[in-house]
Each structure stands twice: as structure tokens, then as C-alpha cells.
């Protein structure tokens, strides 16, 4: 036993000196555990099991997050953003697909796309148009040193990265029968709680990665038949960003987000922001400009335990989710985004201000 531990110690020591391969994506999603465990505010459920597996035939490896930016072709600036019945549109750092097919024809292929790329789905609601993956590990970020390449699967299970990702897919139906598809990313990273001792770690959110969103969107474009690899990279690089502006204002004594843009553009931007910032969209009514969301506001006065402690131990003081209505109203070219309570009355000022600030930070 001692010799085996010494051998494993040597493996870890050597692998720590290697360079991570960040030029590929190879996700493996967590296995679901039972019973369901409580999770901290703003996070969808993780599982106790930290070993990651892939459904049969679900491994995917391709170019890295910045693959679209790496296409240094003299024709990239004039490359078409429309291919077949699919085109790419862009607003700031947000990109999405517009496909001339109804959403019900795209749902199953999109679900297949995620499972083929190594993910399990925790939300699969076709009527709501929302699909969300489990937290997953990008195995391509593991050290590709000589020992690991030699031993291969024999010690693969003991390797783990310090990052987890999840993706949410949103489909919006258009009046002309087409469908808009958005992909949003959320990430977590494991860090030392005490940088001096380095004896305990905690999980904390890490910034959204727009380029990772774009890469997964590009791959989905290929899956849905809109382009091949080269065409999709050129189309992604050719999409021109539209300048975006978001400010915080006050209407009737309540904080709001002010957007100088049309309703259609504001509606899709707000929806993606809600996905990115941890809200759970339970329903939406585009004709009325309302998102019905669930959210757990953090309590800055309570000294919270670590992330893993919250997962593995039920906290009797944990706050129950609170429901809100996020309204999007446009007059002319000006749009106002406000926060209401569950019944449609004004939300508590402190909650409204916190939520408005979170949305405005992402919309800028």
C-alpha cells in the first residue's frame, strides 16, 4: 500500500509540472445522485459524486474556446453570416442562431447535441423552450503529461480539474415561424479558502465566458446542418457586434434598467441575462413583456459555510426561493426593465435594487 501511494504521489508531482491543454473541449457530465441535495443560492443542483462519466458515444473533442477567432482568413470579414436556413446574429458579446424551422423540429436534435458532447440534462422543458445541462468538467484541461498518456484509463479516474461548467439553451419562437437559439454559460471554480495553509477548498462562481458560449453555439450550428466546420467558423467571425448601452435609472421611486433599443432586442438580451445570472425562468409571456422567475437573494449578514458544506448539509436557516416578475416595456426606442413581486406589486426596494444592478452589470 505504501509503495502504491508513493507511486501515485510521484504521478501527481510530475503532472503538476505539465501544461494544460486548453485548445480542446471534452466534457464529461456528473452522474445524478439520489437523494437530491440542497444547494446554495443561485446554483442549480450538483451531485455528491465527483467522478465523471460519459454516455455511450458522448465524447467530443475539437478546437478550443477561441476557435472562431483563430480563423485568420483574408475572406473572414466578408464571410456570410447566413448559411442555408441558418444565420448568426450578434449583439455586443452575445451571439445567437436564427433558424427558419419551428422550435419543435429543433428540440430533439439540440438535446442530442448536448448528450453527444458529454452532458446530462437537468432541465428539459420543450413548452418553455429551456434546456439546461448538469455541471460538467472539461477533461481537455487535464494535464497531458507522459505518465498519464502512458497509463491512460488506469489512473484517469483519479484526475479532476478545478472547474465546472453548465450551459442553458433557450429557444424563442418568432412570428414568421423561425426560431432563435441562445446558449448561456455559467462556471464554478475550486479555490483555496486559506491561501497560506492550502488545506481547504471552496467552490465559487467564475465569470461567464462569452467565447465559450460562441463556440458551443457554433458547434450546434454544425449539428443542425447549417454549416460545416470551416463555414461555421467563418460565419461566427463575420458576425458584427452592435454597440450596447445599459444604465440604472429610477421610475416612480423604483430602480430600473434603461436600454436604448427596441423591444425585440431588449427582450432577448434580458432573457439571456436572466439565464447567465442564476435566475430560474419558470414561465414567460412575450406579448406582455414579462418573465416569471425564481431567485434566492444572498444574505450578506449571515456568515455562510463553504460551498461544499452547503451541498452536503441541509441548512435550516436557508432562504426559500422568492418569485419575481421581470417586466420589459418599450416606448419608442427606449426600454425599461423593472422588478415586481410575485403578484405584480412592486418588489421590496432592497431586492429590486440588487436584482437591477445584477442585470445591468451583465447587460452592459
TrEMBL record:
<dbReference type="Pfam" id="PF06804">
    <property type="entry name" value="Lipoprotein_18"/>
</dbReference>
<protein>
    <submittedName>
        <fullName>Outer membrane protein assembly factor BamC</fullName>
    </submittedName>
</protein>
<dbReference type="InterPro" id="IPR042268">
    <property type="entry name" value="BamC_C"/>
</dbReference>
<dbReference type="InterPro" id="IPR010653">
    <property type="entry name" value="NlpB/DapX"/>
</dbReference>
